[in-house]
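Example for tutorial group B:
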C-alpha cells in the first residue's frame, strides 16, 4: 500500500492528535478553551523568540507600555544574555530567559506572557 506523503506537515503536531485522544470526549466549550490555550502558548513562544533576538542585537524598543517592550529594554540596560542554558546535572537543567552576573550581582529575568500572575520573589 502506498500512503500519500504530506511533506509540509512533517515535524508538526496536529491540534486534534490521535496520540492525545482525550479530545474525543470534550464538549464544544472545553475544545474551544484548549484551542485558545494552545494559541496563547504559541504566541508566548513567538514573543520569547522576538525578545531574545532584540536583546542579542541590542535593539531598544520604542514602546515600553507592553510587557515585552519593557522586558527587552531592561535586559539590554543590564547587559543581559538571552536564552542561556543553565546546567547542574542531566536531571537538573533549563533555559533562563535572560541572565547576567556583573559587579558581584546575579540578575535573572523571566518573561511572562501568559494570563496567570507572575510569582514575585524578594
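The residue assignment follows.
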Amino acid at each position: 500500500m502506498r500512503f500519500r506523503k504530506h511533506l509540509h506537515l512533517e515535524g508538526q503536531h496536529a491540534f486534534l492528535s490521535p496520540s492525545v485522544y482525550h479530545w474525543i470526549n470534550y464538549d464544544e466549550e472545553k475544545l474551544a478553551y484548549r484551542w485558545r490555550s494552545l494559541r496563547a502558548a504559541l504566541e508566548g513562544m513567538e514573543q520569547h523568540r522576538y525578545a531574545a533576538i532584540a536583546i542579542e542585537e541590542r535593539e531598544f524598543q520604542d514602546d515600553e507600555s507592553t510587557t515585552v517592550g519593557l522586558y527587552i529594554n531592561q535586559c539590554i540596560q543590564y547587559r543581559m544574555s538571552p536564552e542561556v542554558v543553565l546546567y547542574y546535572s542531566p536531571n537538573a537543567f533549563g533555559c533562563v530567559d535572560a541572565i547576567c552576573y556583573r559587579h558581584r550581582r546575579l540578575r535573572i529575568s523571566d518573561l511572562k506572557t501568559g494570563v496567570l500572575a507572575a510569582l514575585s520573589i524578594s
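The chain is about 35% helix and 20% strand. Compare this with the pattern of hydrophobic and polar residues in the output above.
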